[in-house]
């Protein structure tokens, strides 16, 4: 016998519902393999150096002592290293050369960073140390070139004043389509030295009699690039040069390679131009070239064209240093500091509009991170 109508309808609805659920379960698509791959890919792309940078960024110093972290990054930014760890190692390098030099470098960086914080400096730039690196260099230059005795109160006061001025000059140059590099440092330090006119006394005590670079012993010539690296911070120390190279290498091995390459090319160019051996031996022909080569590695996408620009830029910087140093000493009575680097690096930066295959990095960092 047939079941009553209402019950039969309920059965049909139950059966239809069961069939629908079964169909959905059977035909539901499985998660594609690419979904699992997408979860793994970010970890696969992280190199050990990248993981180290992430760990450094998460360091408790940044959260507990942000001003100290920004100041240490300011020391690192002298050589384009946005790292408090590298900044601390660099201060140790300066201490290995001269504790007084390290003290004024720290004073200059700290003063500039604090003044920037109080003066409403852009928070993002303050955090990564861009407020402090010019102040660091002002402290280094005043420690060596002002002619004041070590641990002089006058030198400390001049460092505080000069570092504070560097923040204002930095903001004045800010917004230029080309990075200002160390232009604020040069503006403050050179103008101060012109007023002081005493840098020659400090230099005369350390520069030996002039001889040809070709007459230098091979060992001394080979060690000159290391001194050139230390001269970035106005230090004349093999130990400081080696520790500076290590500090940069902790941030980026590619950046360390560019610095060593640039200083070596600057030294070789000096020998080819017949530069005085005493200047070459002290590394004076290497530091501007090292900075130019490093700047190319930081701001350009790593490529054969960028490497060629890095090498040619380093050689041109050394030649420019040779032409400028005599004219500046004769007319103004001051050293050229890092002006040759600023001029050549700015020209290199503008080359991306001319040289095919030469591209600026979207987020300047290092040759490894700027890889195409």
Automatic annotation (TrEMBL):
Residue intervals passing through the bilayer: 99-116, 128-145, 222-248, 255-275
InterPro entries: Ammonium/urea_transptr, Urea_transporter
Entry GO MF terms: urea transmembrane transporter activity
GO cellular component terms, semicolon-separated: plasma membrane
Keywords of the record: Cell membrane, Membrane, Transmembrane, Transmembrane helix
Keyword Cell membrane: yes
Membrane topology of the entry: Multi-pass membrane protein
Subcellular location: Cell membrane
Pfam families: UT (PF03253)
Reactions the enzyme catalyzes: urea(in) = urea(out)
Gene3D superfamilies, sorted: Ammonium transporter AmtB like domains
PANTHER family according to UniProt: UREA TRANSPORTER (PTHR10464:SF4)
UniProt record similarity statement: Belongs to the urea transporter family.
The protein's name: Urea transporter
